[in-house]
Structure formats: structure tokens, C-alpha cells
Amino acid sequence: MRYAHTTLLTFSSLSFILASPAGAPGPLEALQSRATDDNIVYVTDANKFCMIMPRDQHTNIGDSEQPGRMKTYCSPAGHYSSLQGTLPANFWSNVAFKTGTGKNGQRYAQLTGCIRPSTLDRLNTDDGGGQYDSSGGAGGRGNPEGSVCLGYKHYVELVEPSESRACIKCCDDAADCPTNKDMAGCPAVISGNYFNCG
User: Fold this and answer.
1) Fewest beta carbons less than 10 Å away: which of 33, 70, 73, 96?
2) In the record, which residues are listed under signal peptide (predicted)?
3) Which strand ranges, in their side-by-side order, compose the sheet holding 130-133?
4) What's the predicted TM-score (pTM) here?
């Protein structure tokens, strides 16, 4: 697997992330109290992260976007709860990790790149994909509802099996994590390196 690496976001331990997100502006505890281990995402680096995936086998992303049909799946190094699934170690074929500041100077962390959808039995390889997020859905309560990215106020994630592509971005500013472009695909929602996936 090839990794493109920019700035490394570090946390001393996952328990520290859960208890007190490093450098997080404002009171995130209220947001994170809505979340449970099976609807939390985070992005620390290309090896330690959690994403949302369909809960059931061979489910299109769009069909999973209903209460109870989504679940957190983590990288082998990022998994920390029995409520979470584990992504195969070779789920990404190429992945770029990047941190920085967005349009209004607020922090973000993201993963963009190519996936091997056939390695995860939750996915259908011919599925055009869809979006999960913390601030969209009914009443802006997220999809899955109550979902959060640890240490950030917002996130947006797209999984596009038929394009062998996925992306996730955690943001302090909602403007850097738009939820209104879910049909446009990863490159339109999260600018980054996609290694000519497909």
C-alpha cells in the first residue's frame, strides 16, 4: 500500500481522545454524548481511523442510510470497542492522510484514496455509493443520527464501491465538511489525492 502523508495529527492514546479531544475548541462533550462506540468516527493517520459502513452484509450505501443499518468499522490499529467492526488491513489500496486549515482557518483531518470493496463483505462492488455525516440527515442530526468525529465538530464521509474510492474529512468548520454534495462524489466533496482510482 502506498501512503501520501502530509502533517501528522497525534494523540497520546485513544483513551485520551475519548476523554479529552486534543486541541478541540469549544465544548465537544455535549456533541460526543450523543454518540456511542458504534457510530463514532475518527482520523488520526492512515493506520488509525474509524469510518461508518453498512451494518449488514452486501448492502448498498444508500440502503444502509436508515436507523440501525449503519455501524462503525475501524482499522486494525484503530479498533477499540467490541461494538465496532474491523476493516481488513488491505481495505485501502492507496490512501492519503492530510491535516490543515480550511476556508476560514479552522482545522481538519482527512483520508482520501482508493479502496478494495471486495475485501469488506458489508459492501457491494457495483454500488455507486453514498454519504455518511455528522450534520446532515433529518434535522441536521447526522447520518447515522448522533454520529460524531472525535475531536471535531463535523465530519463527512463518502464510500463509492463501484469507483473503488472512499473519503472522510473531520472538520471544526461545517463549511469544510459540506453535506449537500452527496451525489457529486468524493473529489467534489473532499479535495485530495485519489490516485486515479478505478
Assistant:
1) 33
2) 1-19
3) 2-5, 92-101, 107-115, 165-171, 154-160, 130-133
4) 0.84
Element holding 101 (H helix, E strand): strand 92-101
Question: Is 184 within 8 Å of 165 (Cβ atoms)?
Answer: no
- CA atoms of 198 and 194, how far apart (whole Å): 10
173 residue type, one letter: D
Mean pLDDT of 65-79: 96
Buried b / exposed e over 129-138, threshold 16 CB at 10 Å, is bbbbbbbbbe
C-alpha closest to that of 188 among 167, 164, 163, 161: 167
Neighbours of 67 (CB within 10 A): 10
Q: H helices then E strands: how many in the chain?
A: 4, 11
What confidence category does residue 136 fall into, taking pLDDT thresholds of 50, 70 and 90?
A: confident
Whole-number CA gyration radius for the chain: 15
Q: How confident is the model at residue 34 (pLDDT cuts 50, 70, 90)?
A: low
